[in-house]
């Protein structure tokens, strides 16, 4: 948000794009199916990556651990803006996000 100087709404849209894409990409996964079966109980955590290099380092760590995710790249600017994992149990992914703070 600070680095790109975008309005909050534009940043929220990036998160929505990434989440929607992750659900579509991993729609046949057992965790995704379970997550979307009870729409009123969905839970998400929105964290802020302070810089693009930190966002890309997170992607690399997820890739190295075989954690499925979608990196949203805003077009036509070609700017990586958001990462969304497929639904996982918290215990499986929380360590990757320890260095990130809640988005405000």
TrEMBL record:
Any one Gene Ontology MF annotation carried by this entry is:
peptidyl-tRNA hydrolase activity
Q: Which Pfam families does the entry mention? A: PTH2
Which chain regions cross the lipid bilayer?
A: none
Source superkingdom: Eukaryota
Give the EC number(s) listed in the UniProt record.
3.1.1.29
Q: Which reaction does it catalyse?
A: an N-acyl-L-alpha-aminoacyl-tRNA + H2O = an N-acyl-L-amino acid + a tRNA + H(+)
Q: Which InterPro entries match?
A: Pep_tRNA_hydro_II_dom_sf, PTH2, PTRHD1
Q: Any keyword Hydrolase?
A: yes
UniProtKB keywords: Hydrolase
EC class name: hydrolase
- Extract the PANTHER family matched here: PEPTIDYL-TRNA HYDROLASE PTRHD1-RELATED
* Protein name in UniProt: peptidyl-tRNA hydrolase
Identify the species of origin.
Amblyomma sculptum (Tick)
């Amino acid at each position: 948000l600070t680095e790109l100087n975008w309005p909050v709404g534009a940043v929220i849209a990036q998160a929505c794009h990434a989440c929607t894409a992750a659900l579509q990409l991993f729609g046949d996964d057992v965790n995704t199916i379970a997550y979307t079966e009870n729409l009123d109980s969905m839970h998400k955590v929105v964290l802020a990556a302070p810089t693009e290099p930190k966002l890309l380092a997170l992607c690399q760590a997820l890739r190295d651990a075989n954690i499925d995710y979608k990196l949203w790249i805003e077009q036509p600017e070609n700017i990586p803006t958001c990462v969304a994992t497929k639904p996982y149990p918290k215990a499986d992914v929380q360590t990757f996000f320890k260095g990130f703070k809640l988005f405000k």
